[in-house]
Amino acid sequence: MKKITLxxxxxxxxxxxxxxxxxxxxxxxxxxxxxxxxxxxxxxxKKEIARHSTENDCYLIVNDKVYDVTSYINKHPGGKNNxxxxxxxxxxxxxxxxxxNFAWNLLNQFYVADLKKNF
Amino acid sequence: xKVIKNNIYAWLIMAIIIxxxxxxxxxxxxxxxxxxxxxxxxxxxxxxxxxxxxxxFALSLILSSRLHVLENYFNGLNKxxxxxxxxxxxxxxxxxxxxxxxxxxxSGHSWYxxxxxxxxxxxxxxxxxxxxxxxMIILLVLTLYLRPKYNLWKITHKFLGLxxxxxxxxxxxxPSDTSxxxxxxxxxxxxxxxxxxxxxxxxxxxxxxxxxxxxAISKISALSSNIVEISMFxxxxxxxxxxGQFIFIKFLDKNLSxxxxxxxxxxxxxxxxxxxxxxxxxxxxxxxxxxxxxxxVEIEGPFGTFSYQKAVNKNQIWIAGGIGITPxxxxxxxxxxxxxxxxxxxxxxRNDNENICKNLPQSILSLVRLxxxxxxxxxxxNAEIIQEKSGTFNDKDIFICxxxxxxxxxxxxxxxxxxxKKNLHSEEFNF
Lengths: 119, 431
Fold this sequence. Notes:
By secondary structure, chain A is an alpha/beta fold.
């Protein structure tokens, strides 16, 4: 039994170290690369965002940034309906009220554009 | 028969305790949508692993409480501790797998997000889980592989209670089926409370709740160059025990550290004074010979189910390996002529210099046939030799108290010769 425990422990520690290396070391490299590449930001108006308001095509506005969360709807721990009702709309308040830092980090993966204001 | 029944009940109860949260998890919401794609499937398996792992961790803590009722179900305290060890290791393995199964979904397949997921952050529900797991890793590496000195290990091992408490906070803060489904929440809370009570009984509240007997040392006899017999008299209430049982002792003499160690009782159950026979095997036991007469002793117990009185047959074979003679000394001293026991006691040691039974009184030798077996001259004892000297094993109960390997080998030999497992009784002194 002790041998099996040791094997799994070594596997876990090894995998964790690997994830830290690829996650933090390479992330720092690619962050620097983005600054160098200067990727231009795209903008979307509220009218354009409102067209993405269904379960199969869902955009959210959070803190003046636009996120395409279509692929995440079914994975949402709070259920899909709690996202669908905000598709195509401003949802900064509700998002900030109940989501953790982890959720904010996860949201970043779905970023598509900045909100174009005054429209 | 009752012992086997109790054992089955014990396993059944443990299985039910672990499976109830699984069942509640399945009925908390529709099952099929949980397994629509690979990431969700892995996440849901990860959540189940978390529930099972924490339930087993709770059971492991309950088993460590040393409650007498557990002894009856597991056939002795050493067996209870074996189950505690197994349960703890399995819980540990499952809890290591728990975050790994959650990684694909919670990382969004990003190395960076995966690294963040496995790092303490301001996301306290997750961080408490990581802290619990990290502490568990450190403490179990110490327990299973590094094994520091006994007293130091004992102190560090208690911090698993803290790891459990951090895990408890993680389970209750993290958004999950446990937080959303009330029956599951209530069940896990009940299990946590029982586990914390078991842990607290043994640690934080032990001083107030655990019954202890106060004795003082009346005599210290050197039985050989490295074995002493400590005789003690009660200061208040006398401990009642069944011959073959053991006790946990803390010697209060200022010349010895206040460690608590288990020792088999070697005196008879009707003797006025209580005795233990101790072999110098390490730092602590080497100093026992220097204890002061009249110094205090604190005793907890008795524990154990290893006794000739628990056997079906009065024809018995007792096999002692080295210092394993101690419970048999108690048993031999407790036998009464009118009980009609027929006992062959095999005392297995290296040579005559190690023999501490040379001066046993005739009153004992008339009830027990003592067979000294010296490995230097005759090699290791085996079932064949015992059968030649003691005859058939039919209608006999066999008791073995010896190092674990000797017990394992002898048991296998006896079973190969047709001895029923329920007639084989053993006490490993590998606490």
